[in-house]
Amino acid sequence: MTTHGGSEPVFCTIVPPHVLDRLARNEDPALSGPARRSLQRDAMERTRRRLTTVVGAPAVAPPAGKQAEQPHRTIYDARHGTDLPGTKVRSEGQQPGKDATVNRAYSGLGATFELYLKAYGRDSIDGSGLPLDASVHYDEKYNNAFWNGEQMVFGDGDGEVFLDFTIPVDVIGHELTHGVTQHTANLAYFGQSGALNESVSDVFGSLIKQYTLGQSAGEADWLIGAGLLAPRVTGTALRSMKAPGTAYDDDVLGKDPQPATMDGYVHTGSDNGGVHINSGIPNHAFYLVATAIGGHAWEKAGQIWYDVLTGGKLKEDADFADFATLTVQAARERYGAGDALQAVQKAWEQVKVRTR
Length: 356
Fold this sequence. Notes:
Layout lengths: L11 E2 L3 H8 L4 H27 L17 E5 L9 E5 L8 H21 L11 E5 L8 E3 L4 E3 L14 H15 L7 H23 L9 E2 L14 E2 L8 E2 L3 E2 L15 H8 L1 H14 L6 H11 L9 H16 L3 H12 L6
Parallel strand pairs: 2-4, 4-6
Antiparallel strand pairs: 1-5, 2-3, 5-6, 7-8, 9-10
Helix pairs in contact: 1-2, 3-4, 4-5, 5-6, 5-7, 7-8, 7-10, 8-9, 9-10
């Protein structure tokens, strides 16, 4: 594992700002109100994250008596407030309680820990047994979930557009993977490196869901956030790795703007240079690799991506071509000149990213 010195002041949310921006402009206060409050809260948390980075986050050591390669989960209830972490409601090893949100958060942290350990030999987010903390019931009708550099935080959603953010396990895996990236390649959260940061979280979030369900690449739906959208929304998820741009097409949310290839690359100054939109391109490349290889996607395809993320060669400001080139190298080094290498090469050609 390679850990870069110092972390970027990254505040990562599952719902892109452009989605909340559109909701905030809606004439219906039941839609615009929660979206505006969520945007304001995100802005405050983003500032807090920057300050934490400047001052320095406290070092967190595994608790005394914690067994190596075993999770140490703690779930807190924010009770619709914003002071973190909140009241402790479930610790490692305790039986499920009556609060389904608490139970889902606990299970999702465990599923993420297990995938990284069983598939890649990684002991928690930092590789050294980092305790996994999460706060649920954050704020009132908060339409997001985020990793703040130290812990997970989940909103309950507004019930109009978004449901409880602990429902999709891939959302939990996505956000925790931002922590893995923080402790490894530390990809800068802007432009193509930021889109790679988001894509890596979608990739491993999807793999965590597939691992939990025991699905092959061919059986998986390749959706990010399925089950998160309320019944009134015309859509299936936040994003689709199989078919970027098709996750939703709704009169309130608008149409999913993600491109599948470089032909549709979006040049924008918003959302840190379109990190949530352009992530569709490397997302689609991974889908193509995984389905071409077949079997369980967390094995060969996931191993190649993990090798690149943790191998020490991926620069913090890497662009798509840098990442693609390293995946080709990783496929060749681990699997030789066979089907895996050919799948990687062809996938990047299909999304029109040139390797160097």
